Structures are given as structure tokens and as C-alpha cells.
Amino acid sequence: MKIKLLLVGSLIAIAGMALLANNINEKEGERKALAKAPVVPEADMNKNEEWSKYYPRQYSSWKKTKESDNIEDMLDTKPQLSVLWAGYGFAKDYNAPRGHYYAVQDNVNTLRTGAPKDSKTGPMPTACWTCKSPDVPRLIERDGENEYYSGKWSKYGSEVVNSIGCADCHDNETAELTMRRPYLDRALEAAGLNTFKDSTHQEKRSLVCAQCHSEYYFNKSEYTDKDGKTKTSVAVTLPWDEGLSAENMEKYYSDRNFTDWTHKISKAPMLKAQHPGFEIASTGIHAQKGVSCADCHMPYTQEGSVKYSDHQVGNPLDSMDKSCMPCHRESESKLKAIVKQKFDRKEFLMEIAMDNLAKAHLETGKAMELGATDDELKEIRLDIRHAQWRWDYSIASHGSFFHAPEETLRLLASANETAQQARLKLVRVLAKYNAIDFSAPDFSTKENAQKLAGVPLKDLIDAKMNFKATLEKAWHAEAVKKGNLNISSREDVDKTSSYFKK
Ligand code: HEC
Ligand code: HEC
Ligand code: HEC
Ligand code: HEC
């Protein structure tokens, strides 16, 4: 009996010791885990190369976004676009998106940002940098939002120099997912949604993308700077107060009498949709079933015993085994064929909508030429505004045909119906001015369409080339001198845009 007791006693002691050891092991494990999230020095966190020292796998997969280097000139592929955007920057130059690695350089190269001569000139505001670089949150935190959003784009030529990277999505001390663009939280709040901090981990895996892949507009307002001077700020603002649908945002803009530009041919008060990718994707089956952007675009990858997120954000159809197959049982080829079918359906309705819209602009222009009054054209111009907004909202984020096919087709149908309404009214106006037989001039090539839109392409290119040889070179040198940029981080970034080849 005594022996038994002794045995039980020692067993208890042994168990206790094991527990303690376990506990110590756990603590040790935790410590190691914590030590695995090294602090990236704040002063260098804008530079992606700095992070490579601590997170080589994430860094090297991030850097592979440079493999997506193809430049597709969309104005060449879809010439109608130059007519639809006449009078607006996009009629000059618009390429399909490519790898995150090129975001800063593409922003510098595009004809839309023009050819400034110094830090105070150029057609665009500083806001144009906002979704290109982790230097943007750095500047917002350094200078304050008002100062960041004031002045011309060229003001920050030597500051915004590192392309979309680690510090856009991660905390430098914990490597946790984070969000550093304050307008997103304001918009989430205005829409009655959880702010970033209060969202679930799975939601954050999409919200980091929503910092940039969302609809926005440039909201002009006045503020008083620290010296008491009145200045204008042009701030990126997401129009989510009424909700995230095309109709909600249309109401938001109309309530504020907002127009992005007056159309050069039809004088319609236009809206430009800027890739509402997050918004339209939220209506699709994947988002509704809780699938996040990162699930498909940054799938988990196994390398030996290490599992990590593939940071080569790109086309998930190139990595279906990791991006789709964890959830789907069909064969890859069958799934691909389904996706292709969705793409073709979108193209079909989109082509009709673009054709109708381009003709509506040109017919309105003809009616004006013949003497039609603003009063006669008022409703027609409003129809054009609404139709083009819905078309643009539905396709501006490229992947929408897959992310949210039903919503994309619904909006394209609505765009077509409204553009047709405008053209029916135009038949009456043109008849009144004896031009019932008018048919719109040919816009089936980029050259023809840009002529109709009044784009002086050659002059724009010459000016841009001059800018690249002078001011841009100076920016680069200054950025290196200021320590904003590692020279190595710009190697072969300057892939010229299509128009430089011509
Ligand atoms: C566009 C946003 C984005 C950018 C840019 C980005 N990451 Fe990530 N990163 C993510 C997401 C999303 C995850 C998945 C996190 C999760 O679910 O916990 C992730 C995960 C990670 C993790 C956790 C381990 C893993 O692989 O899942 C590390 C470490 C990391 N990233 C480092 C980096 C580094 C280094 C860079 C820059 C070279 C970088 N990230 C750039 C979004 C981003
Ligand atoms: C800081 C802003 C920013 C963030 C954050 C961001 N993107 Fe992007 N994304 C861009 C820009 C700008 C481009 C276009 C780059 C170019 O064409 O130069 C782009 C391009 C893309 C492309 C096209 C890539 C290709 O090779 O064609 C995909 C896909 C994409 N982003 C998905 C995502 C996903 C998914 C997330 C979140 C995990 C995300 N992005 C986060 C700004 C951002
Ligand atoms: C279920 C998988 C899946 C999810 C979830 C997903 N995507 Fe995609 N995404 C795709 C596929 C597939 C394509 C189409 C690729 C192609 O062009 O063929 C695509 C295309 C894109 C494109 C266009 C790329 C280009 O070069 O034209 C962008 C940008 C993009 N997605 C961003 C996002 C963002 C942001 C989210 C989250 C709000 C998201 N995606 C969620 C699978 C997904
Ligand atoms: C995290 C899981 C998950 C991932 C990853 C995922 N899917 Fe899905 N997918 C779903 C769910 C859930 C549905 C909804 C239907 C269902 O419940 O079976 C769905 C539906 C679909 C549908 C039919 C929906 C429609 O709109 O007609 C297609 C097509 C599809 N997925 C393709 C893809 C492709 C291609 C990829 C990779 C790029 C992918 N999925 C990645 C979970 C996923």
C-alpha cells in the first residue's frame, strides 16, 4: 500500500514536471515565434529590399510580379475608348494593368501624368500617386494628409519611388496585416461596415487590396496650412456613403453635383469609374461564400517544410493547382473553359455598350453642330452620363467578369438600355435638324478615334520623352541621395510604354 502511494506520488511529481517542461517549451516556442517577426526599421520600411533580409520567400515571390511585364495598349485593342473618354486623360493613353512591380514606373510613364518641367507644374494632383507605393503612407504620416494632397503630382517625384510593397499591407513591427490609407477606414465607416481593425482576419485578406482596388474620386476642398495660408487639397475619397453598388455611387455623385469631366464631343457631364474591383467582387459568389482576394491571388505555397503565401500577385489561372484546386473538384481545363465562357459573355455585351455609347457621343456632337440647344440635349446627356458610368463600373476592374459575372452583365444590360434611350431621343433631335440619315464617323482604329477625340498624340509623346530625359532623371538621382530608394530597386523597372516604341 505504502509502495503504491509512493508510486502514485512520484507519478504525480513526474506529471507535474512534464507539465512544467511543456509550459516552458511552449513559452520558448512563443518566444521563438515572436523573434521570427523581426522589427523592420521604420526608416527603411518603404523599401521592399529591406524586408528581404527577414522574409526572403515573401520577398522573392513579390519580386516575381515583375514577370508580368506585357504592355497591352487598350486604346489600340478597343479604339472606342478614346471616343468614350474624349476630353479626359484616359483618351490619351491607357494600358491594361500589369505586375505590381511596375506601378510607380507606369505612373511616371503614362501620358496622363504629362510632362512637368519642375516640382510645381503638370496636369495632375499629388493624389495620382496614392495607389502606387508604400512611400505614400510614409508621406501621409510625415507631412499630414492635407499637405500630401496639395500641390501637383511632380511635387513628389523624388519621394514616391518604391513600387507597391510590404509596408502597404504589413506592420513593420509585427508583420501583421495592416492598412495605411486612412480614406479606406473613413469609407468603411461611412458605409456602415467594420473598420479594418474590427474586421475578421479573412476580411483583412481582401481589405488590404481594397486600399487600391476600389472606386475613388478626387475630392477638392480648402484648408489652412500651418502658416495660416489657405490651400487646396485634392484628396482620394471612396464614394461609399450610400453603399457600394453602381446605383448607390451614382446617387452619391449626383447628390453632390459631381462630374469628373465634361465630354469633349457631347458636352455630357461625365463620371469615370476607377476600378471598383473590391466593390463589384463583393457581390460575387466567391466573396459571398467568404473567399478572399488572397485565397486566389496569393495562395499558400509549400516549400519543404515551410508554408508561406505566394506574393506573386497575378493571374490565378496560371497557378490553378494552388489557387483553385484546394476548393474545386473539376479538372483545371474544365474550370478554365467555364471562366473563358464568362469572359466571352462579358465581351459580347461590352462591345455593344461601347458601340452605342461612342455613337451617342458623336450623334450629340453632330446635333450641336447643327444648332441643337442645351435644353434639347439635357436629358440625352444625362442618359449618356448614367449609361457610361454603368458600363465603366462593370468592366473597369478587368476581373469582374469572373469575380461577379451576374452583376457585370446586369450593369452592361442597363448601360445598353440607357444608351439606346439616348440614341432614340437623338433620332428625334437629328430629324428636327434635317440629319436623320447621319451616321457616326469611323472610330475603328486608335488613330481615327484619337483624331475624333482631339488627342495630339505625337506632341504628347515628344514632351514625355523630353521629361524622361531631364526631370525624371533628376528625380531618380535625388531619391537615391535622400535615401528614399536603393539604386538596385530600379534595375530594369523602366520598361518603356508602348507609345515610346512608335
Ligand atoms: C498587397 C498586400 C501585400 C503586400 C504588398 C505584401 N503582403 Fe505579405 N501578406 C499579405 C497577405 C494577404 C498575407 C496572408 C496573411 C495571412 O493570412 O495571415 C501575407 C502574408 C505575409 C507573411 C506571413 C507568412 C505568410 O507567408 O503567409 C509575411 C512574413 C509577409 N507577408 C511578408 C511580406 C513581405 C516581406 C512583403 C514585401 C516583399 C509583403 N509581405 C508584401 C499581403 C501583402
Ligand atoms: C498600393 C496599392 C495596391 C494594393 C494594396 C494592391 N494593388 Fe493590385 N494593383 C495596383 C496597381 C496600381 C496595379 C497596376 C500596376 C501597373 O499596371 O503598373 C495593380 C495590378 C494588379 C493586378 C494585375 C497584375 C498583372 O500581372 O496583370 C492584380 C491581379 C492585382 N493588382 C491584384 C491585387 C490583389 C489581389 C491585392 C491584394 C492582395 C492587390 N492587388 C493590392 C495597386 C494595388
Ligand atoms: C475565386 C478566385 C478569385 C478571387 C477570390 C479574386 N480573384 Fe481576382 N481574378 C481571378 C481570376 C480567375 C481572374 C481573371 C484572370 C484573367 O484575366 O483571365 C482575376 C482577375 C483579377 C484582376 C484583373 C487582372 C488583369 O490583369 O486583368 C484583378 C485586378 C483582380 N483579379 C483583383 C482581385 C481583387 C482585388 C480581389 C478581391 C476583392 C480578387 N481579385 C478576388 C480570381 C479571383
Ligand atoms: C476557398 C475556396 C475557393 C477557391 C480558392 C476557389 N473557389 Fe471557386 N467557388 C467556391 C465556392 C464556395 C463556390 C460557390 C459554389 C459552391 O458553393 O459550390 C465557387 C464557385 C465557382 C464557380 C461557379 C460560380 C459561377 O459564378 O458560376 C466557378 C466557375 C469557380 N468557382 C471557379 C474558380 C476558379 C477558376 C478558382 C481559382 C482561380 C476558384 N474558383 C477558387 C470556392 C472556391
> Which structural class fits the helix and strand makeup?
mainly alpha
The shape is globular
Query: Would you report the number of β strands?
Result: 6
Order of SSEs, N→C?
Answer: HHHHHHHHHHHEEHEEHHHEEHHHHHHHHH
Report how far apart the termini are. 99 Å
Count of discrete alpha- or pi-helical segments spanning 4 or more residues: 24
Biggest β-sheet: strands ordered side by side in the sheet: 1-2
Please give the largest β-sheet. 2 strands, antiparallel
Average pLDDT reading: 92
Residues in helix, %: 40-55%
The hetero molecules present are: heme C
Question: For the CA atoms, what is the radius of gyration?
Answer: 27 Å
Tell me what portion of residues adopts beta-strand conformation.
5-15%
Low-confidence parts: none
Would you kindly provide a written description of the structure presented here, covering whatever features stand out?
This protein is mostly helical. Helix content is 51%, strand content 6%. It is built from 24 helices and six strands. The protein has helices at 2-35, 48-52, 56-63, 74-77, 80-84, 103-109, 135-143, 145-148, 166-169, 182-190, 201-210, 246-255, 277-281, 285-288, 293-297, 320-323, 332-369, 374-395, 400-403, 405-432, 446-453, 457-469, 471-482, 498-501; strands at residues 217-224, 230-237, 261-262, 269-270, 300-303, 306-309. The strands form three sheets. It has a two-stranded antiparallel ribbon. A hairpin with a 6-residue loop joins strand 3 (261-262) and strand 4 (269-270). It starts with a helix and ends with a helix. The model has no long low-confidence stretch (mean pLDDT 92). Residues 96-97, 206, 209, 213, 277-278, 281, 286, 291, 293, 295-297, 315-317, 339, 397-399, 402-403 line the site of one heme C (HEC).
